[in-house]
Amino acid sequence: MIDTLLDFGKIVVADLILSGDNALIIGMAAAGLAPELRKKAILYGMIIAAVLRIAFAVVATKLLGIPGILFVGSLLLFWVCWRLYTEIRDNVDEQAELALERAEDPNRGYTGKPTRTMASALLSITIADVSMSLDNVLAVAAIADGDTNMLIFGLGLAIVLMAFAATMIMKLLTHYPWISWLGLIVLLYVAGEMFYRGVFDASTGIGPMMGWIEGYEMGKGH
To answer: What's the whole-model pTM score?
Structure first.
């Protein structure tokens, strides 16, 4: 029970701290719309981001059972940690906060005649989000470790938070940067655990697969 709650907490933390780049893209795209369309664009953009993550994460959860994938995934997750570190260093959350505030203020951003439609803005958001979803997908799928219900429940909460409280979340991360650093530590731990299992797990590790070692059972419950 405690392990499940901890894993749920890890998923929520990972989803929140990895949402800065999405919020920045959504805020910038919405700011280019007419004022009356911006709030809708932000809401729809957040929902698209969350739904894409759930879909990709469910697929990734299944793929992580393939021998060798955990090892490759751990290397990618270490890369995600490096990306997150550079985002924290470059104050991406602060930029995202300003972009969302600018988009939500009818007196700021673009105020002339409409030059793009809601559909074109959402298309831009979706394309950008697909290219940025790998980080979130890897993190939550690795933490869930095959538990699809926990994965969907955790990301379902993130949908609510990002769809209805995106600006508040960015403010929180901007004003309390230690949350982002804590999240980075959590992701590093997850990446390290994933790497260890990717090498030594009897079912999916590259060590047993290549015949280097016998391997150990490392799934949930072991």
So the answer is: 0.75
